[in-house]
Amino acid sequence: MPVYNLMVNGKSLSVEAESDTPLLWVLRDELNLVGTKFGCGIGQCGACTVHIDGTATRSCLLQISSLEEAKITTIEGLSEDGTHPVQVAWKEHDVPQCGYCQAGQIMTAASFLNSNAAPSQSEIRNAMSGNLCRCASYNRIEKAVADAAEKIA
Amino acid sequence: MKKQTRTTFSRRGFIRTSALAGGGMLIGFNFLTACKDEVKPPVDIANLNFNDFNAYIKIADNGYVTIFSPNPEIGQGVKTSMPMIVAEELDVPWKHVHVEQAGLDTDKYRGQVAGGSQSIRQNWDVLRQTGATAKQMLVNAAAAKWQIDASEVSAKDGIITSKSGETLGYGDVVKEAAALEIPENVSLKEPKGFKIIGNDALNIDLHKIVTGKPLFGLDYKKDGMLIASVMRPPAFGQTLKDFDDTESRKITGVTDVFQFGDKIAVLAKNTWSAMKGKKALKANWEDNALESTEKHDELLLGLLNSSEGEVRREDGDVDKAFAEADQVIDRIYESPFLPHNCMEPMNFYADVTSEKVQLAGPIQTPEGTANRVANLLDRAPEEIEVELTRMGGGFGRRLYGDFALEAAEISSKAGKPVKLVYSREDDMNAGIFRPAIKYRISAALKDGKVTGYKLKEAAINSNMYGLIPNFFPAGAIPNLKIESANYKSNITTGAWRAPYTNFLAFAEQSFFDEVAEALNQDAVQLRLDLLNNVDEGADDRIQYSASRMKEVIKLAAEKGDWNNTSDGIYKGFSAYYSHNTHVAEVAEISIQNGMPKVERVTAAVDCGIVINPTGANNQVVGGVLDGIGHAMYGDFTFEAGKPSASNFDTYRLIRMNETPKVAVHFIDSEIAPTGLGEPGLPPAGGAVANAIKAATGKRLLKQPFTKYLAETESEVKG
Fold this sequence. Notes:
A: alpha+beta, Ubiquitin-like (UB roll), 2 domains, 5-stranded mixed sheet, B: alpha+beta, 3 domains, 7-stranded mixed sheet
């Protein structure tokens, strides 16, 4: 099996995996980073969202062989101990119910706020629409993203 | 059943303490005895070990408190709210409390189930008494130390104080307290004195969730564990003829492929290999009875229009009321099957060895599932261990342990620890859906009043549970008849968040809107008038409280500004009692590009005492949005036994850009609390449908609304 050198959460790691293995399963099964979740496997739900060079990307569709030059950030590496403004806002608004989709939501929100520091309400609603939450915590996600934008500013 | 000497105790429950190896005290309260008088605790308390108890508390010497939460957590918040109740009566600062999820233990706990919104309602008294008894024992220990009477000692916020001003922490007397006799008739706090209950507490796993810590079944790992992926018949009514696993076995990482029943298991060293291995299988299936939605529609409508069916409740003389009516309204409402679509796909860990069977994962019914696994593998129930993980949603799907049984069977056959993982397609198509149901509802109107009401249910597989015929409008209309009939399908069905009422409430609340229109009455006033007919307490089968229902109706109408209109906004009203909780909702919609857009929902809720306002609010908001999402978009049909959708590209769930703002108002109450996981959902669809009627003049008779509106567009325009 081929070996790939990856940069995950600021650390250089080498991992043995078949070339077509999605990043999602390398993270979860090989690197023990299980914060990134499996939801649909076809890029429709957003539960597996990570940052590739700072941009929110679906890790379920990303083959490991294409990532040797990339800087990969997962929920575990977004901040030291949950201190990223988006994570702080998530806590203040008590966003999660079951909690399963929230890592993906947070990673999408963090990347979105990097590209748009002062979003309007409708920009937030559109940007977050790619991430499903089956508990429908959407009202609080919307507020938490707006709040995080203010914290960052 | 273990044999134990049993005797009578003067009170309904008991508390037991025992010294911990590392210091501290454990306290348990038997859920069993609290629920059923006839079950008595063992006589020899001194010889009991800790395993004989249920809900319990652990107090460390430093005063730090651990509270074990016995019930499964599926996102309904009980891992936060149940320990809050214990902490309130124990009287410790919430910030000094650590919560742990208990595993399945049928000796210690009873009713470790997440279902029917019952966790809080069923355990309220028990959890309070557990905390209060522990507090009293700590007070008694301090009194003994100070050599004064316990009446001269008080305790609060983890500190015990004597009349003369001496203080001790709970941790200072915990060892002594553990050795004391268990006090009877401890006093509980007055609700006015609550300090934890009624105040916002954040989700207990919040930090772990936002930092991506392992919590869920899918995150569960054990050394040497293999991943299993299972191929099932693609259509209901198919059986496995034969299969070729040559290509599957060539996939790197695949370790084994075997048949069990009509399914094929692929075992691999990692998830991706297992999924690839399954895709590479070539299977041939035998067609047996393949069913379709078209056929179901025909059969269910046939049942509604036939005399076939079971009478579930009958009051007065319905035939006479209809014969004498000035006007009769008669409507049929239709709903599709629905998959649950928990965000975390079904999965379970099993390690079947000759000594024991270890199970771990997300399950709403750990006890029932353990028993079924014991039966399947012909093992004693004592040999089955179940560890509970947090669940990425439940919605009823994880009441059914089918996936745990599969995992156990695979592990047993393979002789290895296995984690079974469903793909989204497996999850959406493996079965146990909300059944498709149709209702025919008729009302007899005479002299401006509703004099007769008939409702008939035609459902796939099974009918409404026994309490539902005694929900509103039973008791409010003198001549009433509720009937049900079903068609047994080979498509598997089961409970889906607020079973039956998730659609029945839409049907009835749409229907009453039409009745109000026919009587030229305001929709809110009609409901209040009907509730005024209820002679409360006259019929103990009636489940709802007319007075509590009227209060939520009035509050929703007030907060939702029911009597005022604004440009471009159309309102719809709905009220429904389910799962012991009364809810009323006002939906406001606008029309955007010819389609309804839900702008805002105002909900009024009476669940008695609100334990955790933030958690309670979250449950209701989520329930309302779930109800709207599925009423608007949820579509799931069958052709030749095969489901129409298998992933989120073909199955539409509500997304953020489609969600209204939801405002929730709770009735201020000192009545014992009831659950909130489900009751917010049922009224939502009807409120939206009635608002759409107000906007477009169109009555919605089928879900999902988007499909029905598209199908009938020509009728509206024509």
